[in-house]
């Protein structure tokens, strides 16, 4: 109904006109955004991102070390075995195999 709505916050209790804004049929919902894969030249920013498919670390002092068949992380150093600073559920052995970007020595 037009007028002041008492359920609005006091600072917003101004008269409503209740006029319809716009006309026609509502717009369709936007299409879902599909993330684009990182180009091969994009570097991996930190140790929270798997570098298995792109072993190019942004930090020049870090290298992409493999933990297992599925995970590799950019680290400054890596010692094979269990890393106690990993969350308990992820405390499985690291192989620490060094992965390098294609074309790198």
TrEMBL record:
Listed name of the protein: Uncharacterized protein
Lineage, top ranks: Eukaryota, Sar, Alveolata, Dinophyceae, Suessiales
